[in-house]
Write a structure and sequence with these properties.
The protein is α+β, with helices and mostly antiparallel strands and 332 residues long. The chain folds into three domains: 65 residues, Orthogonal Bundle (Arc Repressor Mutant, subunit A); 91 residues, SH3 type barrels, CATH 2.30.30; 87 residues, no CATH class. It is built from eleven helices and twelve strands. Strands 3, 4, 5, 6, 7, 8 and 9 form a seven-stranded mixed β-sheet that branches. It is elongated, with a radius of gyration of 28 Å.
């Protein structure tokens, strides 16, 4: 609608000052000629808008023409710009509405708050969709404050980080783009040696904010980097849920060895009490049926209960092992 476009032009000029007609046309997805007609309409309506000719020219409002929203604190202004991920708005058909709403809010904010609000929108994302197979949020320690300081001050970070896949702790120096809250779980999106990487905040064993400026790739922002990393994980095969029973006298060792496969990693630090039957049921997640063969290392002390496909895979492997050892050794 033309009225909405006129308001958008006014708010963009309030926010950015002078803008080229071509820039406004690109932002609003119309022709430059349409923008010039809209500027004439605004002027006729009494809005003090004018054009500047020449290579450095453009369209601008007379200085001092703006409207502030009063009563907003700096923190409240920042809170307004902690956004849901763009994909969530697109899925709901609200992508264009979001852009329009943000322009209106940004233009109406008191000038001293605009920088912080804009920075927040580029450093924090909220993605409400939970990853399939994810066990949900862990408790977040006080180091989230350190992550925030680095993200908003544009400093590098040094992490001692425990990997979920093998439980090993490694040290990284990273260049943060921002923080993402994925269904209650906080992640740091950063470059490591120039490549995008994702780190769960609750797996950081220590965080040091370095007094070195970040070394981000030119033109790369949080939203785009998050989309790349999110797709890498979403495109992985769905985890295979496997239920096993483990002898109680082997349980502690089993939980340590298979910590990366546990549906509930907290069982390592708080194992279930011994049972009257002498067996404890444990829920695991594997990337494939083939990966379940590692369970054979525990021999008869571990039994797969479900799914039947995993039982069949292990039965075939066990039969092949028995057959191998029933034959004479090679060379005899």
């Amino acid at each position: 609608m033309k009225s909405d476009r006129l308001l958008s032009i006014l708010l963009l000029l309030q926010t950015h000052g002078q803008l080229a007609a071509a820039t406004l046309a690109e932002r609003l997805e119309v022709s430059t000629r349409t923008i010039m007609r809209d500027v004439e309409a605004l002027s006729t309506a009494g809005v003090p808008v004018y054009t500047v000719r020449g290579p450095q020219g453009g369209i601008a409002l007379l200085p001092g023409y703006h409207t502030d929203v009063t009563g907003l604190t700096a923190d409240e202004s920042r809170a307004l710009f902690v956004l849901l991920s763009g994909s969530a708005h697109v899925d709901l058909g609200l992508g264009h509405a979001l852009g329009s709403a943000l322009r209106k809010v940004m233009a109406a904010l008191p000038a001293p708050y605009r920088f912080d609000a804009d920075l927040t929108s580029r450093r924090i994302l909220i993605d409400p969709v939970r990853w399939r197979g994810s066990p949900g949020p862990d408790r977040v320690g006080p180091d989230l404050d350190a992550f925030q300081r680095a993200v908003f001050a544009d400093w590098r970070l040094r992490l001692r980080y425990r990997h979920g896949r093998d439980n090993r702790v490694r040290t990284y120096t990273v260049d943060p783009y921002g923080l993402v809250n994925k269904a209650g779980v906080w992640y740091l999106v950063a470059d490591h040696k120039g490549e995008p990487a994702l780190y769960r905040v609750d797996r950081a064993r220590s965080v040091t904010v370095l007094t070195e400026p970040v070394r981000r790739r030119d033109g790369v922002e949080l939203a785009g980097t998050w989309e790349i990393l999110r797709r890498r994980i979403d495109d992985l095969p769905a985890p295979l849920a496997v239920t096993v029973r483990v002898r109680d006298d082997t349980l502690a060792l089993f939980l340590r060895v298979h910590q990366a496969d546990l549906a509930d990693p907290d069982q390592v630090d708080s194992p279930p009490p011994a049972t009257q039957t002498g067996w404890t049921t444990v829920e695991l997640r594997f990337r494939s049926l083939f990966a379940t063969q590692t369970l054979l290392a525990f021999g008869p002390d571990v039994e797969v209960l479900t799914p039947d496909e995993a039982r069949q895979v292990l039965a075939r492997l066990a039969a092949a092992i028995v057959a191998r050892y029933e034959l004479p050794a090679a060379g005899q």
